[in-house]
User: What shape does this take?
Amino acid sequence: METYDALLASITPAPGQNSRTILDPATGEAVGEAPVHTVEDLEAAVAGAAAAQPAWAALGHDARSAALMKAADAVERSAEELAQLLSREQGKPLNGPNARFEVGACAAWLRATAATPLDPETVVDDGETRAELHYRPIGVVGAIGPWNWPMMITVWQIAPALRMGNAVVVKPSEYTPLSVLALASIINQELPDGLLSVVSGGRDVGEALAAHDAIGKVMFTGSTATGKAIIRSSADTVKRLTLELGGNDAGIVLPDSDPKAIAEGLFWGAFINTGQTCAALKRLYVHESQYEAVCSELVAVAAAMPMGNGLDESNVLGPLQNRQQYDIVARLVEAAKDSGARVLLGGNPDHEQPGNFYPTTLVADIDNGNPLVSEEQFGPALPIIKYSTVDEAVAKANALDVGLGASVWSSDLGAAREVASRIQAGTVWINKHGAVDPRIPFGGAKQSGYGLEFGAEGLKALGVPQVING
Assistant: This one.
């Protein structure tokens, strides 16, 4: 276990190296210095990864899985220090489903990825023909991560890549490089030199990574616009891609639901990580018979959830990670207010308060075409839309060009499953939202991306399928 100061020192740029100061989004105070890597640094990282990868691949699944298990142990030994850094840099509180939760998820995903079986599959064996399907390493994988769950999503990318015998070069978000650098430094205690590296650079580095001819696959979590740019950049080298892009997840509350029983689940589905989650509940459709009751119960839950500096153990909601995202949320809430929508809670930020804090906001009586509904807010503001028939709710849920996740809330499991089957989304949860599981494949529909993560399907996505016929 390292102390917090030792962990931060381990990733501090050397004297004379280009760096920039990372600020705490709750206070505006300096968290630390992040290196500013260049395309030349990327070239060195890719070369090192390519050199380290063959020996790693030759170890086989059992040895690679054992190394991932040891990496999980190392993460747990430094869990509190990693959570403290994550809270300071990203803004999320230590408690609730936030910083400590995220670090714990890193260890859990490493272990689950290591333990997932992936044996050769016999596809034909009829006495005359025998064909087996195997998955071979790709080589070097590029991983480009976001700022909302920087540690956890990095593990989602690197754990299956390493398990399948690949080397990985990570390009973290410019907003949260320290968290990813620290996590990688801990995991690298159990890995060969050069196998996993982090290149903390700007857009030029990300573009070079996506186009690099020595990188066989890119994994990306982020906006649809950036995902499209990566698709274009990857075309000349015919890279494999896994893209988890923007979502604007719908939730549908059916008429038979118990508003009080589902209120807390609805709240955390929408406001986990202060709403800064790709697969968060971002627009809620409630039947007219339940509408006022659901609104009332949600207000009661939301009003009791403390927001503030993440290092305060009492808080469970934090600031927006960056001012750009704060401005997006503020703009969309103002558009809702200007349209005559009813603000049930929040919508009134304190401009004298330091940090990027936007209050927990619930907005009712809003039209489905309002920007707060049709655009992804990615923050602590939830529009609640009234509907009359289930067909109407499904049509509104499916009206957008994204489909990462969705949810159906009902006391009748059969009815909920029937509605779920009609929703155009990669995952539809019932009586919960955003509950990802390392054993269960996860991916988007429509412009929310393509490719699967997690479980055996996620492992297969980090390999090259090879059929041995004979």
